Amino acid sequence: xxxxxxxxxxxxxxxxxxxxxxxxxxxxxxxxxxxxxxxxxxxxxxxxxxxxxxxxxxxxxxxxxxxxxxxxxxxxxxxxxxxxxxxxxxxxxxxxxxxxxxxxxxxxxxxxxxxxxxxxxxxxxxxxxxxxxxxxxxxxxxxxxxxxxxxxxxxxxxxxxxxxxx
Length: 166
What we know:
Distance between the termini: 14 Å
CATH topology of the domain at 32-128: Immunoglobulin-like
Helix content: 25-40%
Strand content: 25-35%
Structural class: alpha+beta
CATH architecture of the domain at 32-128: Sandwich
Number of strands: 8
Number of helices: 2
Order of helices and strands: HEEEEEEEEH
Oligomer: single chain
Radius of gyration: 22 Å
Shape: elongated
Strand order of the largest sheet: 1-3-6-5
């Protein structure tokens, strides 16, 4: 095959891969699927637990988090706030004291108007060495994953069209 014919085929192949990747990400942008939770689903934790965080693949407009203690009594939680570019719902409460299963119910209003509700549980065991980790990293800066993908595509395309490349 002639080298000049191969280059457009590579560019078309890369364009198709990029389009498939963007289309593959579009459902994530349209829904409020949970990405991570802290405390995590089904896990046992010790230490001080006085905050719960739920991160999502897409931004949300608002959230509401409620917690039931092992006696099925509501935990007195503060208002649900949003962090990290409205992708993490956060609720604070007095440090847990009663060992056992905690049931979390969260409802989110997505940017597209969908309302979703989910329930999960975690366990509080005061002597457990496993501690819940914060999902909030740094400040509400740019989306580094997206910027990395764009930089990668630019480098690939730049390599294909760099002058003097045969």
